[in-house]
């Protein structure tokens, strides 16, 4: 069933663009108003959570994992759109089923998407020892991708010009807050819970190696032939033409892909086409300060 996004036309766009703090993290007003339901969500032991900061390769990771769960059957993965196959836990927009409602109607084993920082995750995931695959991407490419995403999603705040958005992003004054705190939070707890921490850049460099890490974590075995099939069907060029993945099923008045495609470039290092020398120097100085004291390191190109 295609998600009934046409009903979003009735929503109050200016209201949806409002961000409010939830335990200090800026989230959309709809998520904030539904917070009690998110906080008390009941996980199941066989849930698999796909967690990311926004624009860190969430759809890519989701499609790979759904293909793993489907035994490499790409036709089965075309049974529905990615946002129905992997419901978005905290999602809520008036007139649409919430992510929680979708998940409660989804049979086990469930794939669960979230952008929540680790401190906001429902406790039931840890109580049930559910598995989490965290997918992290370097801060500069995330900034660029998040900027273009704001330009095409009508329910997100207007990003303004690039330099203005970059300042907001560096301060953490965007949806889901600070990238630095998000990636560090999950990294620091990766040994406390059932978490596999992966990097976008590593996946671009050697998808076979990284998917094998997923398979080991998920305690699944797969032949090389099926693994190669998954790699092919989850390449950027193939996914970009797949309407079950590329969000082309959503109308332009909700997600305006005439401005920029949802699947824009899918590379590591595109930030160099957008950062000025001065912006890069300022960003690096800020990054060094905010990431001091951690052994978490990112590559900004491959």
Describe this structure in words.
This protein is an alpha/beta fold. β1 and β2 form a beta hairpin. It contains 15 helices and six strands. A four-stranded parallel sheet has the order 4-3-5-6, sandwiched between helices. Helices cover 40% and strands 9% of the residues.
Give the arrangement of secondary structure elements.
Layout: H1 13-16, E1 19-22, E2 25-28, H2 29-33, H3 35-39, E3 48-52, H4 58-69, H5 82-85, H6 99-104, E4 111-114, H7 123-127, E5 131-136, H8 139-152, H9 162-171, H10 179-188, E6 195-199, H11 200-205, H12 207-218, H13 224-233, H14 236-240, H15 277-290
Parallel strand pairs: 3-4, 3-5, 5-6
Antiparallel strand pairs: 1-2
Helical content class: 40-55%
Widest β-sheet, arrangement of strands: 4-3-5-6
Order of H and E elements? HEEHHEHHHEHEHHHEHHHHH
The biggest beta sheet reads: 4 strands, parallel
Percent of residues in beta strands?
5-15%
The overall pLDDT average reads 90
Span between N and C termini? 38 Å
Apparent shape: globular
Summarize the entry for a quick read.
With 302 residues, this protein is an alpha/beta fold. It is built from 15 helices and 6 strands.
What labels would you give this structure?
302 residues; two-stranded antiparallel ribbon; 40% helix; alpha/beta; globular; 6 strands; four-stranded parallel beta sheet
């Amino acid at each position: 069933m295609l998600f009934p996004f046409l009903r979003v036309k009735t929503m109050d766009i200016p209201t949806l663009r409002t961000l409010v703090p939830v335990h200090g993290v800026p989230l959309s007003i709809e998520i904030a108003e539904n917070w009690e339901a998110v906080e008390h969500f009941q996980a199941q032991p066989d849930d698999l959570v796909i967690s990311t900061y926004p624009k860190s390769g969430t759809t890519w990771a989701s499609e790979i994992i759904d293909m793993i769960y489907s035994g490499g059957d790409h036709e089965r993965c075309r049974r529905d759109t990615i946002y129905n196959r992997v419901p978005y836990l905290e999602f809520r927009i008036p007139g649409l089923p919430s992510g929680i409602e979708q998940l409660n109607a989804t049979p086990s084993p469930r794939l669960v998407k979230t952008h929540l920082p680790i401190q906001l995750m429902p406790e039931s995931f840890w109580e049930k020892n559910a598995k989490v695959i965290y997918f992290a991407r370097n801060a500069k490419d995330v900034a660029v991708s998040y900027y273009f995403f704001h330009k095409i999603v009508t329910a997100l705040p207007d990003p303004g010009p690039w330099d203005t958005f970059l300042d907001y992003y560096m301060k953490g004054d965007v949806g889901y807050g600070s990238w630095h705190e998000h990636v560090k939070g999950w990294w620091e707890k990766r040994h406390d819970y059932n978490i596999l921490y992966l990097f976008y850049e590593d996946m671009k460099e050697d998808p076979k190696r990284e998917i094998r890490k997923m398979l080991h974590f998920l305690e699944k075995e797969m032949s090389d032939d099926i693994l190669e099939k998954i790699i092919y069907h989850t390449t950027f060029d193939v996914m970009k033409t797949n309407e079950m993945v590329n969000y082309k099923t959503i109308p332009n008045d909700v997600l305006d892909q005439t401005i920029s495609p949802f699947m824009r470039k899918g590379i590591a290092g595109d930030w160099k086409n957008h950062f000025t020398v001065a912006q890069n120097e300022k960003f690096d100085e800020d990054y060094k300060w905010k990431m001091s004291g951690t052994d978490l390191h990112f590559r900004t190109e491959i």
